[in-house]
Amino acid sequence: MMNVLIVDDEKLIVKGLKYSLEQQGYKVFAAYMGYEAMELIEKNTMDFIILDLMLPDADGMMLCKRIRADHDIPILMLTAKDGDYDKILGFEFGADDYMTKPFNTLELIARVKAIMRRAGKIGEGKVIASGSLEINWDERSAYAEGKEINLTAKEFDMLYLLASNPGRVFTREEIFRQIWKEDAFDVRTIDVHIRNLRDKVEQDAKHPRYIMTKWGVGYYFNKG
Fold it and tell me: 220 near 162, Cβ under 8 Å?
C-alpha cells in the first residue's frame, strides 16, 4: 500500500482528496501546516506528497526545497496561482508536477500515478489483459477500451481476485473472506459489488463477457 501525504490548510479539499485516494487503495496522511508535514515525513515512509503552495506557517516553495534536500519523494504542487513564473519556480525547487485550483480530482489521481510510474514507485508488472480489459495491480487501475475505469478499492480487489483466477468459481463467502479479511456476515454485499462492477466493466451488463455467474454457487471470470 502506497503512503500519500496531503499538505493543505483547506480542510474540504483535503477531505475530498483523501476519500478519492483511499478509494484507489492508497493510505493517506493529512497535514494542515508545514511543521505537521515535516513531522509526518520524519515518522513515516511517504511515497508521494501533494503540497499546497500557500500554507499558514510556511512557504510551499521553501517547504518543497526542504523536503527535496533530505528525501527523494515525488511531489505534486497545488496552488491557486496560475502563472508560468510560479510553475518554473516550483520545478526549480524540486516539484515533479504542478496543478492549479480548482482541479479535476480524476486528473490529479492520473498525474499521481504517472509520476509514481516515472519515479519507479509502481511498475508495469502484475498486469492482466483479457479482450479490451486491462487490470494493473501495481497501479491499482483498470482500463476498458483504453479508458480508465473509476473503481472503488473493494471493486478493484474483487475484479483482480476473479481475473487472476480465470475460470475458478468463487462462492460469495469466499469472496467476502478474501476481500474483507473476515468471515462473511452479509453476502448480499457481494451481489451489489458484482452488479456495480458489471455496470462499469462490461459493455452490456445484462449480457456480461467477463464477470460470470455460476447459478447457485457464485461468480467467476470468463477465461475464454
Answer: yes
